[in-house]
Write a structure and sequence with these properties.
Order of helices and strands of chain B: EEEHEEHEEEEEE
Low-confidence stretches of chain A: none
Number of domains of chain A: 2
CATH topology of the largest domain in chain A: Rossmann fold
Mean pLDDT of chain A: 93
Structural class of chain A: alpha/beta
Number of helices of chain A: 5
Order of helices and strands of chain A: EEEEEHEEHEHEHEHE
Distance between the termini of chain A: 21 Å
Largest sheet of chain B: 6 strands, mixed
Oligomer: heterodimer
Helix content of chain A: 10-25%
Number of strands of chain A: 11
Distance between the termini of chain B: 15 Å
Mean pLDDT of chain B: 94
Chain lengths: 233, 201
């Protein structure tokens, strides 16, 4: 196992999983922790990487009063074992053979399963145009910001659009507000092109993106969502 | 049990009476939202509910007709396969027993159909005998669209994906067939007390 700091609150865990059967970008795993008295707690975490042999990466945000995430982010050490089950979920998935164009909308740590899709698209060198809208509170809260900067340089057919909802660095040229219909109209592919749309994030974010897309004429069947509420682990 | 997670000392944030929380679940006071697609917008004057399939005569209700049926207030615990449990939730709705009162059928299974295309399958016996409702109020208020309004199926003794949001009808069937999540690897029956989360559990 390896650990990668993504932001002050978010860490990726690179896991070697014996006999991992592979997965599709967008799927998740269930992680189970067991205390020495037998007490157990389980939570679901999205896989951040496309299939790569026995190796998967999960990215975890530390929830301040969470039961599981502080342990995974702060206490789990390289070499420790982790009990997990998966892959789970088969609807919120995309692979290059599904085609595009692709519109991905990420609120906060909702970027994780979308990053698996984006990495699959880039890894396959597929000629599928992708737009990724990332919403975060501040520049320091953007997960994978270095990699997104490289991928979104305009050379690879991938465009990354960011909105920072709470504070922006000097000279910021991106959006400065929570996602709304006008923003989705500006950044999403036109409905006429039948893009595949994926939105993941807190409920309010996903509701705003999905309802804006429907209002703009996108077929609801082409809009797939994954939401997480204020609770979690 | 696998192995001990060294140093893990987590404990639930909300204590609950023993016996009320199924294995692997934790109690939340929030009401998280989980949906596979956009929330459908269903004007009440276009809403309808049907009983179809293996029945002599299909039944259909408008919103006005449906909400004029005898309704029940129920307080139940609900359990989501994503691990949260919410205790003492209060609903108002029509018992499925009321809907099927004058419907002779030899069907053993039901496919619930929703606006937006969602489906979920259940044995008919799990919808009758005071175990299931078509609910249209939550906590004394009209059911929020995010939580399945105008009306959702409420089958609290099974994992909550069986309680189809935006429900528009029950199709009575002779043969079982997987619904939406059941076709993506989730358990066909989904008993939280036997932790039937995924196929094979």
């Amino acid at each position: 196992m390896d650990r990668v700091d993504e932001t002050a609150q978010v860490r990726s865990l690179v896991l070697d999983v014996p006999e991992w059967a592979g997965h599709l970008p967008g799927q998740h795993v269930d992680v189970r922790l067991t205390a020495d008295d037998g007490y157990q707690a389980e939570r679901s975490y999205s896989i951040a990487t496309p299939a790569d042999g026995n190796r998967i990466t999960i990215t975890i945000e530390r929830i301040a009063d969470g039961e599981v995430s502080p342990y995974l982010v702060d206490e789990l050490q390289v070499g420790d074992k982790l009990e997990l089950r998966g892959p789970i979920g088969g609807y919120f998935v995309w692979q290059p053979s599904d085609g595009g164009p692709l519109f991905l909308a990420a609120g906060g740590s909702g970027v994780v399963p979308l990053m698996a899709m984006l990495r699959a698209r880039v890894g396959a060198r597929a000629d599928i145009p992708v737009k990724l809208l990332v919403s975060a509170r501040t520049a320091d809260d953007v997960i994978y910001s270095g990699e997104l900067g490289v991928l979104g340089d305009g050379q690879s057919g991938v465009e990354v659009i960011q909105t920072l909802t709470r504070a922006q660095p000097p000279g910021w040229s991106g959006y400065r507000r929570r996602v709304d219909r006008e923003m989705v109209a500006d950044v999403a592919w036109p409905a006429a092109g039948m893009p595949r749309c994926y939105a993941c994030g807190p409920t309010g974010f996903v509701e705003a993106v999905a309802s804006a897309l429907v209002g703009l004429g996108h077929d609801p069947k082409n809009i797939r969502t994954e939401r997480f509420g204020p609770t979690g682990g | 049990m696998g192995f001990v997670s060294k140093g893990f000392r987590g404990r639930p944030k909300v204590d609950a009476e023993a016996g009320r929380v199924p294995p692997g679940q934790y109690v939340t006071r929030d009401f998280p939202v989980l949906s596979a697609g956009p929330t459908p917008n269903i004007p009440l004057d276009q809403w309808g509910f049907t009983i179809s399939g293996q029945v002599d005569k299909p039944l259909a209700w408008s919103w006005a007709e449906f909400t004029a049926l005898p309704a029940e207030d129920v307080t139940v615990d609900i359990h989501c396969v994503t691990k949260w449990t919410k205790l003492d939730t209060t609903w108002k709705g029509v018992s499925v027993d009321t809907l099927l009162k004058d419907v002779p059928t030899a069907a053993e299974f039901v496919m619930a159909h929703s606006y937006g295309g969602y489906t979920t399958n259940l044995p008919l016996d799990d919808l009758t005998g005071g175990k299931a409702w078509i609910a249209y109020e939550f906590g004394g208020e009209p059911l929020d669209p995010e939580h399945g309004g105008p009306a959702r199926l409420l089958v609290p003794h099974l994992y909550f994906w069986k309680s189809a949001k935006w429900v528009r009808g029950l199709e009575l069937r002779d043969e079982d067939e997987p619904g939406f999540w059941e076709g993506y690897g989730y358990h066909n029956y989904g008993d939280p007390w036997r932790e039937q989360r995924y196929a094979g559990d």
